[in-house]
Automatic annotation (TrEMBL), chain A:
UniProt domain Aldehyde oxidase/xanthine dehydrogenase a/b hammerhead: residue ranges: 232-311
Gene Ontology molecular function: oxidoreductase activity
Superkingdom of the organism of origin: Bacteria
Pfam family, one: MoCoBD_1
Protein name: Xanthine dehydrogenase family protein molybdopterin-binding subunit
Automatic annotation (TrEMBL), chain B:
Pfam families: Fer2, Fer2_2
Keyword Metal-binding in annotation: yes
Cleavable signal peptide: none
Key words, A-Z: 2Fe-2S, Iron, Iron-sulfur, Metal-binding, Oxidoreductase
Protein known as: (2Fe-2S)-binding protein
Ranges where the 2Fe-2S ferredoxin-type domain occurs: 1-76
Source organism: Pseudomaricurvus hydrocarbonicus
UniProt-listed CDD domains: fer2 (cd00207)
Presence of the UniProt keyword Metal-binding in the record: yes
Molecular function via GO: 2 iron, 2 sulfur cluster binding; metal ion binding; oxidoreductase activity
Amino acid sequence: MNKKAEEQDTTATETLNIHGASLSRRSFLGVSGSLLVSLALKPNLGFANSAVTNSLDAAAPNSWVEIHADNTVVIRTGKCDFGQSSIYTAYRQIVAEELGIPVDAITTVISGDTDRTPDGGGTFGLLRTNVLNLRKVAAYTREAVLKLAAQRFGVSPDSISIKDGILSAGSKRASYGEIVAKQALTLEIPVEGELTSFRGLTVAGNPPLKDPADYTVIGTPVKNPIVRPKVSGELTWVGDVKLPGMLHARVIHPATLGSTLVKAGNVDKSRFPNAQVVAINNLVAVVSPDEWEAVQAANAVAAVTQWSDWAGLPGSAQLQEHLRSQVDWNEVPGTAGRFNSGDAAVQASRTHAASYFVPYHKHAPIGPTVSLAEVTNGTITVHTHSQNPQFLRMAIAKMLGESEAAVVIRTYPGPGHFGRSNGGNAGSEDEAVLLARKLNKPVRVQWMRHDDMQWSTQSSAMLSDIRIDLNDSGKILRYEATHFGPPMQDDRPIGALLANLPTISSPSPNNPSPVHRAEMYVADSWVYAGIANVAETGHGTYQLGERESPLKVGLRDHSMRTPIQFQQNFPRESAITEAAALAGTDALEFRLQHATDPRFQALLTRLQKESQWQTRPSPAKEDESATVLRGRGVSIMFRDNGYWACAATIAVTPATGVVKVEQITLVADPGIVVNPLQLKRQAEAGCLMGVSQALHEEVAFDQSRVTSSDWYSYPILTMAEVPKLNVVIAPFQGAKIYGQGSESANALVPSAIAGAFFDATGKPARRLPLRPDYIKTLLL
Amino acid sequence: MTVISVNGEKREVKASPEVPLLYVLRGELDVMTPKFGCGLAQCGACSVLVDGEEVRACITPIAALDGKEITTVEGLPARWQQQRNLADDAERLHPVQQAWIDKQVPQCGICQFGMMIKTTELLESNPTPNDAAIVDALTTSGPSPHLCRCGSYAAIKEGIHHAADLMAASGGDKS
Ligand code: FES
Ligand code: FES
């Protein structure tokens, strides 16, 4: 039946109120039918630029859930998959659970695309707050279907139960599909917020949610349906997209992070007949219909392109000293920790005081960033891999001075980049747009390995002073931490900066956007409830070199996995380990004494058992002439309502300075475990990335540029260095909150490894990474 | 003109002889599973089999490949089918791919094409590798270690052992 015929067959529309959402129903004579759950756009929200107005798929651009007469279900989310699989596993489980349908009934997950998904927002904290939108939508939907079933059965909704997609009351039964058949049902859900803001839209209201005690789908090890198309090669990755008539571009980024263009080089047409140089202010690129020609020609042109000199960075070798004495920490207001309490002037019997340092890290995706852009009939379409497509859409529109309605972001699988694009861009998207507009042809911008290392954002460094006062009996009387570091959320696209076009503001103390401020917050949640006196302070500054750079570039920073918390957990847990030694107490026992929350007690006791922890004070007092020294360390962390503990065993070879991590035991009580299989894989992987950061990673830079440019100058972990890994998921029974995965596992590994080094050698390693040259200086 | 066999099919290549295989496969022949990771033989994202041996497509000019047989992940199911003389079955994957699904190996997955290629090379010569042989294959045997940023190495190890089991269990000798 065509659409027109359907319309003619409809009877009058009926509207029902479902906990503040509104369900409208039209019957028609066709066999199909569906329930479409969509946005209720309040007229006063000013949604001139909402997804509705730039829809390519006019049928259902802004629906969250669609239930079809054949019992299949489609869900849509503005969030994307970054390899953790949550939107294909946990999200389906959570929606299936609320609806009371089998998880396999959700056959399709549409994600990210700005013209085909309803809510926007960034892909972070997926199971923390982000999934709440779909969970509430599913709850509204179930309530609506219950109401329809009640009418059909002639009973009250309370007397209907739902199991495996079947609603029943006594002898009366109907599937979801049967309830929606032969009707056009629309459920409009109330929302708040702005679609293209950093956090996107939030579903409002409070529909009744299923009691976790009744869960049957959540908690099961559902496999990730995307793995098969990934390993079979059927999936189109962002780098695989081909647009008709597209040009391949290579960007020739400036010689330094502050250089402006003096003169762009020319293409030697005898060698590269189809290549062309394009310059938009300081954005210089070479394009060609042939990719290899673009690569070769760009190399040749780069060699003869002239840039101004610039030197405005301290150099990574001087970074600690620079943060200590060259930065004016009064420019940005300090912030106090949320758990500060007690007295500053306690009478200490012994004190541990030391400084700790975490260097800049790279997100370092295995594939450098790549995007495509095309302009057709005034619509700018960007094909990319982004963790916040609606925010990217806003930034592209802003850069071009266009309406957001003119910009569409399409998303694809891509290399995991761990938060780099949670504010929209990862690099290359805006460059593709600018080149496509200028050349009036579709353009694909593929960064090379060196572009990705040298021109992407980085996770910023932190210098921390910790002071721990002990009383006579070796307990902590007072904990004081002062953290100094640049901000971590620069979401300005690099192409807009190079082309000198309008964009959002860089991190500063007066940035109107709370996530883009320069203040340094205390992000490492306090875990030692047994300590009465706590004083934590954060001191922020501007990004290094940004204000000095004529491009306003310098070292651009961006959150990575557990932003700020990683950098603050390392000093805290390292110092606690050293304070335990000062008290003559075992490092794990010391944590048991101070982390008095029963869930930490249970976690640490479990860790003791799982890691076969031998209780004794550090250091291990090995024979110092031994060729290999062994030790073990422990760390704990609280994040997203999840409790995490880690034990590491390492072997140090003093002669070479090599640290080998032999075993990692991780115990997690993350709250409700939605999918134990995927959580375990996420945690294992996060853990290994943490080992990589602990042993190898530090961004090198001189006074002008990032000098880490490839996998030799920015090494990461290889399989040869993988320790024995034991990840234990031990959730507290009765938790009400969904547990998250890999990020926390990532952050607490380095401090456990540093603790193990102290145990093995008696020498504290107070900075990362534990590379041989540094280790040798410690053991001299 | 260079002629190569790609996943069992003879392909005439228009690109000039110095162009790296990766650009020919992806640009000219539409074979997309070899990925661009570094272009420097440092990561393994672009790995393919050339006459059964793992080669980094990003630095190998096609001039060196005239007449050779190239297998990418797209061609693994057919390669397995042929090796074991199995009936045509469009659903059947190579045991290495199947193991990657069974053990849910990938996180983002971008490195896994190269990992599966390297694993196939390993298992074809050593059907029951121990951990040391696996680590050697994925770190020291080639021009560089195969890198996984997501940290899926533990899952990859499990996947390789499982793939070895699947291959052993599927009966029939290697031809
Ligand atoms: S892309 Fe070929 S080895 Fe990295
Ligand atoms: S799975 Fe993401 S790089 Fe290996």
